[in-house]
Amino acid sequence: MSEMHQAPNRRSDxxxxxxxxxxxxxxxxxxxxxxxxxKMAPRIKSFMLRKGVSADLAEDMxxxxxxxxxxxxxxxxxxxxxxxxxxxxxxRNHRIDRLRRDPSARFVDxxxxxxxxxxxxxxxxxxxxxxxxxxxxxxxxxxxxQKQILILSYIEDVPQSAIAERLNLPLGTVKSRMRLxxxxxxxxxxxxx
Length: 193
Prior knowledge:
Layout (H helix, E strand, L loop, with lengths): L5 H22 L2 H21 L4 H18 L10 H19 L20 H20 L2 H12 L4 H8 L3 H22 L1
């Protein structure tokens, strides 16, 4: 079930990154910058190493990128992409500038750019889609009164006591139906694996 929560987690991670870059832009917040550095520096270094940059040069380029992030934080536009995408673009541009300054360096065409994506890998997307389809099929197989309680609880995030009030049912009945629904869902999902 953890894969089903990846999209909300990714959104919350992106939101956290956006708050950090805003804190840097508006307040020159060193703690926020430190968090950005801790999250992104290893990813940027890995990107540089995958592009054939030496480990020492990759470290230098991470530093250059992070200095640019510090000085240009106010230029980040959330409408144009995530903070990570913006930072990788800065890193890529620093790499290209470095390659242009060093004629002996191997140059790879920009079309070869394969920066980290905020999108999950295709096989992860397929697995999540298959799991979601399995859950939807399993949900379709359970009785309507149990399905209604599961939807209120897990999709609408309504507490059991509020479900009982909303459906005018005793709390024990809500808990019992939820337990039965879990049993049905478990059996249906076990058939899929």
